[in-house]
Structures are given as C-alpha cells and as structure tokens.
C-alpha cells in the first residue's frame, strides 16, 4: 500500500521555507524528496501539495516550524520574518541565516506575549523609561544625558568585572522596561536588532564576547531612542548607525571620565587603548572612538583598532554546542532560559502567575520550561536582580 | 449510561486535575474517590471510548508524570497522527482567531501544541473533548486574551466540549 499523503496549502509551505531562507534544493534534501517534487507542491495549480506524513514531519524540522503551523489554511495575517526597517547598503534585504531568522521570530513571540500581559495588568512590566531623540540631536549629548538616568557612577563601572558589567547593564535596561534577549546568531548575520512596540525589545548576539555585547546593548538602545526597528550588521554605514555608535560610546565612556584618565598628549599606542578599554569595560574601538571625539586620538587609530576588534568579537563555538546544552534539564534549563530570555521577561511571567493573569502551564509554555524549573528560575531571577539590579 | 456521549478526547489538564499534579485544584482530596474515577477512566480506555493525541505524551510526562505512568502503556489511547487528523486540523484553523494562528505559527519547532491535535482528533472520531479549560466568558477579565479549546470548538460544527466534572457525572463515577 502506498504511503498516505496529507493535503497542505502550497503558499503556506512555500512561505515556511522562505521564512527560514532555505533554497528549494536544500529543503528538498532535508525533506528527502526530489527538488522537482517540492517545487510541484509549492507551485501546484490547485494550490495544494501532497507530502506523506514522514515528509511533512521532516519539512517541519527543516523549516523549524511545528507541523501544526504547516497545516494552516493560509499564511497567518501578521506573520513576519524581519524587522520592518532593516538597513543595509542599497536597502537590499540582508541574506540572513536560519539562526537570525529564528531569533527574530522568537523575539517577536516574546514581545507579543509581554505586550499582552501588560495589557491585562500594566504593572507586570516596569514602566518604560525611554527618552526619544531625533536624528538631528547630538548623539554625544543624548548618550550622556540618558546615562544619568541609569545612575552608575565612575567607581562602580570601573570596579566591575567584564561579565558583571554586561549583566549589570543588561539588567538595568530591563528595569527600564525594555526586553533584552540573547540569541545565538551567525557572525555574518547581525550583532543585534531592535523591535519597537508597546514593549520594545533588544536582541544581542550571544556568540559575541562581553565587550561587544555591552556595546551592542546601547547601540540598539540608541535605535529605540530614535523609535526605529533595526537590524544591525557590520557592513552598515548609514548615518543612523553612526549616530547609534556615537550614542553608545558616549553613554558607556563619559568624556569627563576619559579625560581624567589620559595625558594631554594624543594617544597613539594600542596598549594605552587596551588599558582604558579594560577600565571602562568596553571594546578597544569604543575607547578609540571616544578619544577621537574628545580630540585625543586620530581617525587612523580608530580605524585600525576597529578593524582588529571586528575580527575577534565572536567566541568560537563548537558545532552543535547549543543543541548539546539544550538536552540538560532542571536548574540548568532555568539558567539557560534566563540567559536567553532575560530577567525582565522571566520576572514578568512569574509575576503574571502570582497575579493570576496566567496559569502555571501557560507560563511554562511562554518560558519554554517544565514545572520543575519554576523554583530554580524564581531563585535565579531573585539573585540576578539582587546582584545586578 | 444511555445518554452519555459515545467517547471522549482527554486533555493533559484532566489528568493534572484528577491527580492534583502541578495544579492548584484537584478533583477530590479523597483517595478512594480519585481511584474510583481512575478505574472508570481506564475502563473507558479499554473500551476504546477514550483517546487522545500522541502529542500529549510529552506534556503529560512533564506536567503529570504520575498520571502518565498509569496510562502510557494503554494500547490505543495515544492516537498517532493520520492524514485525516491533520486535514481536520487544517479545517479547524479556518475558524481560529488571528491571535491563535499567529501564536501557533511562531512556536518553536520542538514545541508542538497539543490543542489543535485534540480538536482534530475530536473532529475525526466524533468524540467529546474533555478539558479543564474554560471558555472566555467564564474566565476572569485578566485571563481572556487567549482563545481556549472551548472557544475554538464553539465555531466547529459537531465538536462538543465538556469539563472533567461533567464527564464524571455523565459516566456515573461521582
């Protein structure tokens, strides 16, 4: 008896493939059908394809969608795969890997849930404290002024370890009402992106080193102050990107503090830049940029250091490292989710459970954890807020 | 019972509710009553009058492991997917709310939602869905954002939904 087939909508399966940026050839290989068969399902004149159950399951796995998604009668009305105003040279759509597309999808889902919960009970998320700026404003002044709200003085910042600095800045942003997620993305994809909305979100590339992630946090925050969705790639050279770079550098390295730490002569040595980067817990190019801003370094130094930094901002991860981590359960699961989703989102969901806005199973679904991870998660959230908040 | 529905499609929350696993309320604190209901349920499963979707296995393992241990070897209880079930799901989607469709569309690949499968199983078998989920009007104002199984099924001709308490009453186990 031939295997039984399932009728699926051509446009839905085609959209699912495109939403993960997969070529028909790669998809056909993953589903284990000839490419012509896949294209025939996608382009069928009756608008339907007929894979077998096994092929449909493989399709879900390849497109990173549950099978239930592929059975939809048409493309969901609000399905999107990209921040609306992504910017690249010439305005061309960036060719993103599945990692980045999944990160965007997950961030949109988290953002939607947080917005819904805020609608049900406003106090679930901290009040949003973003001061909006205009492109015409001075990025240096804007960064410096906004920093005052975060109340981190010189002594505190310079005494932090690098990892503590990242966690502390990240926590502070979340306490200002912004969701901050950390998702693994390919180095070629992007360093981070923002999603505006009722509950704005920043996503940093978890594969970057801490110095780079700290800069990305405030570069993306700068986009939020300009009220724009953005996907920030290394090759972006648009004015807004430059504005956000200067904002982030000014935020992280206040000019007065930097002047206190450098001699009157211009800085030319990489060693001195390294010392200052270590002091302020930022990348070397951020220091070079700020030195240039205050007239203590030349453009050449900044360009040279920036090029060197860009080549080494990503941690080398072994193939399949994330998948391996995924298999562990219990307290590890809680810690992983907290690192990925951020303390802002996790505490919002836990708060929603306590306020009776969601039940435990819904919360488990929103956080992607089982019932036995709630206690360790709650403890981790408390610890994070005490340590970094 | 002559007027009892022919069969039932059970949801994870029924087992959580019966056993009191990871659930604030439970059907009864009296172990004898709980056992009586369990035996009734097991008889229904043996008579092929109670089924569910295979996608409940994972949920049950996670949320009501004790109940899962009790039913996991029951032959014919966890129905495997068939093309009919999946195509019924496609029809169910036609009446789902936009929020439901978007939420299910954007779920992570490894997290199949059992709800559409339960509804599809009910559409194919003609059985009644038994769930602890409440329709929107019966939920508190804070909990009305999601379309739950009873809300969704109201729009699907021929699919009925009852609460676990109704099942116990209908089968005379109370």
| Average pLDDT figure of chain A | 87
Number of helices of chain A: 19
SSE order of chain A, one letter for each helix or strand: EHHHEHHHHHHEEEHEHHHHHHHHH
Q: Which sequence of SSEs, written as H and E, runs from N to C of chain B?
A: EHHEHHEHHHEHEH
Largest sheet of chain B: 5 strands, parallel
Give the spatial strand order of the biggest sheet of chain A.
3-5-4-6
Rg calculated over all Cα atoms of chain B? 16 Å
| Strand-pairing-aware structural class of chain A | mainly alpha
What does this structure look like?
The complex is a heterodimer of chains A (389) and B (174). Chain A is mainly alpha-helical and 389 residues long. The radius of gyration of chain A is 23 Å and the shape is globular. Chain A has a four-stranded mixed beta sheet, sandwiched between helices. Chain A has a two-stranded antiparallel sheet with strand order 1-2. Helix content of chain A is 56%, strand content 5%. Residues 81-92 of chain A have low confidence and may be disordered. In chain A, strand 4 (192-195) and strand 5 form a beta hairpin. With 174 residues, chain B is α/β, with parallel strands linked by helices. Chain B has helices at residues 12-19, 31-46, 56-63, 65-71, 83-93, 98-105, 114-125, 149-153, 164-171, and strands at 8-10, 50-53, 78-79, 128-130, 161-162. A five-stranded parallel beta sheet of chain B has the order 3-2-1-4-5. In chain B, strand 4 (128-130), helix 8 and strand 5 (161-162) form a beta-alpha-beta unit. In chain B, helix 3 (56-63) packs across helix 4 and helix 5 packs across helix 7. The longest helix of chain B is centred in the N-terminal third of the chain and has 16 residues, at 31-46. Chain B is globular and about 45 Å long. The two termini of chain B are 13 Å apart. The interface between A and B is large, with 46 and 37 residues.
């Amino acid at each position: 008896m031939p295997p039984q087939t399932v009728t699926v909508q051509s446009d839905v399966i085609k959209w699912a493939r495109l939403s993960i940026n997969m070529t028909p050839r790669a998809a056909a290989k993953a589903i284990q059908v000839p490419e012509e068969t896949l294209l025939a399902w996608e382009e069928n004149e009756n608008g339907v394809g007929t894979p077998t159950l096994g092929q449909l399951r493989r399709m879900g796995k390849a497109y990173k969608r549950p099978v239930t998604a592929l059975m939809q009668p048409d493309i969901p009305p609000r399905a999107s795969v990209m921040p609306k105003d992504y910017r690249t040279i010439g305005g061309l759509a960036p060719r993103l890997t599945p990692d980045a597309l999944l990160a965007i999808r997950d961030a949109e889902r988290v953002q939607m849930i947080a917005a819904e919960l805020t609608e049900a009970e406003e106090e679930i998320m901290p009040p949003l404290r973003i001061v909006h700026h205009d492109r015409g404003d001075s990025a240096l002044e804007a960064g410096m002024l906004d920093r005052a709200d975060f109340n981190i003085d010189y002594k505190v910042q310079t005494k932090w370890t690098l990892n503590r600095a990242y966690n502390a800045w990240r926590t502070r942003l979340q306490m200002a009402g912004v969701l901050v997620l950390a998702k693994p993305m390919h180095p070629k994809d992007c360093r981070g992106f923002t999603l505006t909305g009722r509950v704005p979100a920043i996503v940093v590339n978890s594969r970057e080193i801490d110095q780079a992630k700290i800069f990305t946090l405030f570069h993306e925050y700068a986009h939020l102050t300009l009220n724009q969705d953005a996907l920030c790639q290394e090759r972006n050279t648009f004015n807004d990107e430059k504005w956000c770079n200067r904002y982030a550098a000014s935020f992280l390295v206040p000019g007065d503090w930097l002047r206190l730490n450098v001699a009157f002569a211009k800085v030319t040595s990489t060693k001195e830049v390294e010392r200052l980067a270590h002091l302020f817990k930022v990348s070397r190019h951020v220091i070079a940029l700020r030195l240039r801003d205050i007239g203590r370094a030349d453009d050449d130094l900044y360009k040279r250091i920036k090029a060197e930094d860009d080549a080494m901002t990503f941690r080398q991860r072994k193939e399949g490292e994330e998948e391996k981590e995924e298999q562990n359960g219990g307290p590890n699961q809680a810690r992983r989710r907290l690192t990925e989703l951020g303390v802002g989102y996790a505490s919002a969901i836990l708060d929603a459970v306590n306020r009776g806005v969601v039940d435990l199973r819904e919360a488990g679904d929103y956080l992607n954890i089982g019932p036995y991870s709630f206690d360790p998660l709650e403890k981790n959230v408390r610890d994070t807020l005490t340590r970094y908040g | 019972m002559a007027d009892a529905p022919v069969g039932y499609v059970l949801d994870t929350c029924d087992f959580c509710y019966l056993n009191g696993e990871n659930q604030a309320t439970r059907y009864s604190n009296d172990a004898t009553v709980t056992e009586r209901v369990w035996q009734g349920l097991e008889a229904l499963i043996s008579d092929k009058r109670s089924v569910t979707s295979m996608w409940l296995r994972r949920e049950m393992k996670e949320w009501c492991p004790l109940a899962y241990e009790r039913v996991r070897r029951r032959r014919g209880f966890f129905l495997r997917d068939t093309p009919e079930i999946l195509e019924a799901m496609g029809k169910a989607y036609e009446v789902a709310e936009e929020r439901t469709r978007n939420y299910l569309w954007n779920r992570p690949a490894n997290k199949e939602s059992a709800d559409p499968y339960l509804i599809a199983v009910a559409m194919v078998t003609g059985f009644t869905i038994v769930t602890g989920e409440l329709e929107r009007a019966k939920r508190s104002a804070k909990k009305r954002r999601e379309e739950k199984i009873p809300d969704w099924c109201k729009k699907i001709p021929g699919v009925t939904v009852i609460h676990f308490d109704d099942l116990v009453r209908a089968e005379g186990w109370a």
